[in-house]
């Protein structure tokens, strides 16, 4: 399924929210949140991190392009974001339960994480045909719903995928960052949290790509 499902590990040692799909939470959230050090005083922010993805995955945008897109948002919206991390997937993060993006907050860091996309452009969604409303954010950027060997997938051409990463994934996670200051995050209002982030991406996403994605 691809219904957004934010999740909280600990409000003391690091929180993790967001993502476009429900996921199996078997990895070590503490280690992930705390593997990034608090930026030093005077260090230029955000800190840019880009992993080397495996041969089966790619980053549709560079971390520099993501940072340039972030700069197009109002300064008060991006203030406090310490890192942008283009992160590779592990073998535990494959399949329809994998997140596409996340927002990590804790221990002096606020991190927008964008995960790598399958190199063939095909994202598996599972065997159940997803309702139109659950895949609207894919379709809006040119994603094509397909059924392949009994499973449903979303396929993107690279141009649309690049816009999807900057205008939707990046801005959705920035929306979580903005919402942090105005709303108490909990399982009780998970739907409101995701709705607020989606609304932010819908409102501000079209402003961020600009000349960044021109040929």
Head-to-tail CA distance between termini: 34 Å
Strand order of the largest sheet: 1-5-6-4-2
Q: Count every beta strand, where a strand is a DSSP E run of 2 or more residues.
A: 10
Oligomer state of the chains in this structure? single chain
Mean pLDDT: 81
Q: Compute the gyration radius: what is it?
A: 16 Å
Order of helices and strands: EHEEHHEEEEEHEEHH
The percent range for strand residues is 15-25%
Could you describe the largest sheet, including whether it forms a barrel? 5 strands, mixed
Question: How much helicity do the residues have?
Answer: 25-40%
**Unreliable runs, pLDDT <50, ≥5 residues?**
1-34
Describe this structure in words.
This protein is of the alpha+beta class and 215 residues long. Helix content is 28%, strand content 20%. The chain contains 6 helices and 10 strands; from the N terminus they run E-H-E-E-H-H-E-E-E-E-E-H-E-E-H-H. The chain has helices at 29-34, 63-71, 75-78, 136-139, 158-180, 190-204, and strands spanning 15-17, 47-50, 57-58, 83-87, 101-106, 109-115, 117-118, 122-126, 144-148, 151-155. Strands 1-5-6-4-2 form a 5-stranded mixed sheet. A 3-stranded antiparallel sheet has the order 8-10-9, with no helix packed on it. Strand 9 (144-148) and strand 10 form a beta hairpin. Helix 2 crosses helix 5 and helix 5 (158-180) crosses helix 6 (190-204). The longest helix has 23 residues, at 158-180. It is globular. The N and C termini lie far apart (34 Å).
């Amino acid at each position: 399924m691809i219904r957004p499902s934010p999740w909280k590990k600990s409000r003391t040692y690091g929180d993790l929210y967001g993502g476009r799909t429900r996921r199996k939470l078997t990895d070590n959230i503490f280690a992930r949140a705390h593997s990034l050090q608090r930026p030093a005083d005077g260090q230029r922010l955000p800190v840019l991190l880009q992993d080397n993805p495996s041969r089966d995955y790619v980053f549709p945008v560079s971390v520099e392009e993501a940072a340039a897109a972030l700069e197009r948002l109002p300064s008060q919206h991006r203030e406090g974001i310490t890192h942008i991390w283009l992160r590779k997937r592990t073998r535990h993060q494959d399949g329809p339960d994998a997140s596409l993006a996340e927002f990590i907050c804790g221990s002096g860091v606020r991190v927008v994480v964008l995960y790598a996309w399958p190199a063939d452009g095909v994202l598996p969604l599972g065997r159940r045909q997803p309702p139109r409303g659950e895949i609207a954010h894919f379709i809006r950027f040119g994603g094509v719903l397909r059924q392949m060997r009994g499973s449903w997938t979303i396929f993107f051409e690279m141009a649309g995928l690049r816009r999807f990463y900057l205008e939707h994934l990046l801005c959705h996670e920035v929306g979580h960052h903005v919402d942090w200051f105005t709303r108490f995050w909990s399982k009780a209002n998970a739907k409101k949290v995701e709705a607020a982030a989606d609304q932010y991406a819908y409102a501000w996403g079209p402003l961020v790509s600009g000349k960044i994605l021109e040929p």
